[in-house]
Amino acid sequence: MSLPVTESQLQNLLGEVPFTRNFGFRVHSLGDGECALAVPYQPDFERPGGIVSGQVFMAAADAAMWLAIMTRLGLEENAVTVELKTNFLGAARREDILCSAKILKQGNRLIYGVAECLNGKSKLLAHHTIT
Predict the structure, then answer these.
(1) Domains of the chain: which residue ranges?
(2) Would you identify the CATH topology of the domain 7-130?
(3) Which residues are CB-contacts of 117 (< 8 A; sequence separation ≥ 6)?
(4) Taking the C-alpha atoms of 53, 55, 60 and 65 in order, what is their torsion angle to the nearest 10 degrees?
(5) N or C: which end of the chain has fewer CB within 10 A?
(6) pLDDT digits over 33-55, tens only?
(7) What is the model's pTM?
(8) Which residues pair with 23 in a beta bridge?
């Protein structure tokens, strides 16, 4: 099945948009209604105590879902997040993260999905429910 966007288009978008540019997100993989982002570790991500701040997980989940939606609706779609619920299940310390988003249900006005953030050892760090 052909997607309405390419990996390079989505990677360019991540680099052009101010709210994603500074995170350094990289498109890891794409599929129909799915997108995974590599989140390279940056010292600026650390909060006191040396762990990666939760806002990094949430931004990665939101961006991954945004791009997953584009795999269905194309680049011109202006979808916005209505609700984001995050459960933090583990900490990342000076390590890259992989955040994978998947559409669960696509309605006429709302799209429901989930995203998961994992470390390099495939340990689940955060689970996000996104509308």
Answers:
(1) 7-130
(2) Thiol Ester Dehydrase; Chain A (3.10.129)
(3) 39, 57, 60, 61, 97, 98, 99, 124, 125, 126, 128
(4) 150
(5) N
(6) 999 999 999 999 999 988 999 99
(7) 0.96
(8) none
